[in-house]
Amino acid sequence: MRRLITPFRHQLTLVTRPSITQCSIYRPRIGIMYGMSTMVDPVDTLQHYRHQIQTDITSAWPSYEKLKRDEPETWQKLSREDFVTIRAELWHTKQWGVEDLVLEIIEDMRKLDHQWSILEYNDYFMVKLYQSKYNDILNMYKGEFQQKGIPLSVGSFNVILATYIMVGDTQSAAELVKKMVRGDVVPSIRDFERTMRRCMPHNATIVETAKALISDHGFTTTRILDTNLIHLFGEKRAEDVRRLYLAQKSRKLDLSTYGILLRGFVDSRQIKVAQSIYEDMVNAGVKPSTFVCSTMLTVFTHRRDVASAEKIIQETLKNGHELDITIYTQLIKVYFKARQTAKAFHVFNEIQKSPSMKLNDVGFIKANDHASAAAVMTDMQKLQLNPDTITFTTMIEAVLSSKQPSSAQESLQMLTTAGMRPNIYTFNAMLNWWVKAQNMREAERTLDILKSPPYNFHPTVHTYTNMLQGYAETMDLPKAMQTFQTMLRSDQKPDRAAFHFMIVSFLRASRLQDAMVCVKRMRAMDVNPTKDTWMLLLDECHLRRDWVVGAEVVQELDASGFVLTSDALKRAYQSIKNRCT
User: Fold this and answer.
1) What local confidence, expressed as pLDDT, does residue 10 receive?
2) Confidence (pTM)
3) Is the distance from CB of 346 to CB of 312 less than 8 angstroms?
4) What pLDDT is recorded for position 121?
5) What integer pLDDT is reported at residue 185 of this predicted model?
């Protein structure tokens, strides 16, 4: 047995290359083994090999070596997808020695006349960077790669940039970043760091140099600056964004950039920073958009700053923007927060006069006390307006959150005392509150109360969906299944949300096959899954490496006519599909 000792990133791992007898693979024919003289159908060998590398990562390389050595005719029938799959499996092992193996595989592709795509060039560049063979990278990039006119990908750009930095050619590195300003690839600090963690995990200097180059030569373009801000906020790196902004604030930024900064810092609960950036924006003469207006109203609500809220509304209108229902709702929230109830009701009444805005479109404010919420509900009843589920949910949440009842009966008494007449919307809102608190015991009691005298209400789709969501979050599959069956028996057609929570319940109970049955039933009832549902299923198939169910998911997704617009969903879909064909 030949042995190669290759270092794992955090420990030493022994990688062995088994002998022929150890690599013997059972065939789907009785008595047929590798190394025997019995005639074997090459097609069976190829199919069995494909199945093996998809189900057993550790055997991927030994099986490949054996196939190449002992059955060259079958080896020559490997497709491009086969080579892509085995490389993906090798990278997945995360063993340090796989770089050499990946390089051997892409060289084998050339021997079999498989033309390299950007995927193969990416792997070549990354392997060479890890091996510190910078001349090989530059020779390939300046020669064959550019001669073929292949556009750089994010990965190849990061490697070439790192190579220029490592050889001390900062001028070429800067030119490369400038070149990307006019191309489709966006130089990204986050993406560069990810590539370096894979190829040069202990080199912090190169990351700092790349940051400076991208900042100096890339952030002059709004598209690149905005993309980097979104990436960093997405990784909860608000402090890095703040430092980046301080380096850029001396120049006038685009409105979209200010919008991203404001929303990011508000979401990160850094209200003072957001306020400071907004002041910089005003001083720079940049006028607010509806997006900026909506974001800053959140800040002004927190600060109870009515004057600033009214001013930004005026500025937004002055710039020709129309205010939507969300902005009006936030303005009402500002008034309630500042205890200016009269102004809040004035805005509310103005909304009702507009034919394009109806009360049922409003996710109303979360008042700070039950008296305010009750007053609004009473005013609605006087106007003979019927609030929808969202309105009731947000209002009742305000009442219950302020008093924190300990039981369903107590919460009902609070609402009655506040002057809210119980109806099915009220009970659904109460259910929603208990579900959010993950108190399914009181949610169940609320359900019992609404069905009992003197109310005798019939549960709606929203009622059952609330319960399904609660059982999914508390991982109570038996009760979720029971609720779903009760829903069907009551002639209530489950909506997409109900099916989604049922599928989540199955997945959390490690019952992928049952989740797939649920999807098929969903489609049979002319209810199509959402992007989130498809993503959950594809991710679960990939996590469990269950390509059989994965093929079913792909088939159902194709048959549904669902249009893939999310890049993440496209990658998950294609990854599963490649393994199932």
Assistant:
1) 37
2) 0.56
3) no
4) 92
5) 83
Contacts of 252 (CB under 8 A, 6+ apart): 284, 285, 286
Give the DSSP H/E element, type plus range, for residue 13. Answer: strand 12-17
The Cα 409–Cα 351 span in angstroms is 35
Burial (0-12, 13-18, 19+ Cβ within 10 Å), 408: buried
Mapped to the 3 state alphabet, what secondary structure does 453-484 carry?
CCCCCCCCHHHHHHHHHHHHHCCCHHHHHHHH
Distance CA 455, CA 445 (A): 14
Amino acid at 2: R
Do the beta carbons of residue 497 and residue 533 sit within 8 Å?
no
How confident is the model over 244-290, as pLDDT tens digits? 888 888 888 888 899 899 989 988 889 899 889 988 998 888 888 88
| CA trace torsion 256, 259, 263, 266 (10° rounding) | 150
Element (DSSP H or E) covering residue 2: strand 2-7
**C-alpha angle 300-305-307 in degrees, rounded to nearest 5:** 115
Determine the 3-state secondary structure of 15 from DSSP.
strand
pLDDT number for residue 6 = 37
**408, 379 in Cβ contact below 8 A?**
no
Give CA separation, 150 vs 124, 144, 155, 489, in Å.
14, 9, 13, 59
Task: List the one residue out of 482, 547, 510, 551 whose CA is nearest residue 54.
Answer: 547
CA dist 289 and 378 (Å) reads 34
CA distance 356 to 222: 35
DSSP 6: E
Supply the Cα-derived Rg of the chain in whole angstroms: 30
Query: Which residues does the chain have with pLDDT short of 70?
Result: 1-45, 52-60, 96, 349-399, 401-403, 418-420, 581
First-to-final CA distance of the chain: 35
DSSP 395-419: HHHHHHHHH--SSHHHHHHHHHHTT
DSSP 322: P
Question: What confidence tens digit (pLDDT) does each residue in 490-519 have?
Answer: 888 899 999 999 999 999 888 999 999 999
> Which H or E run includes 38?
none
| Token code pair at residue 157 | 């750009």
Contacts made by residues 117-124, CB under 8 angstroms, sequence distance 24+: 117/80, 118/150, 118/151, 118/153, 118/156, 119/84, 121/145, 121/150, 121/156, 122/153, 122/155, 122/156, 122/159, 123/87
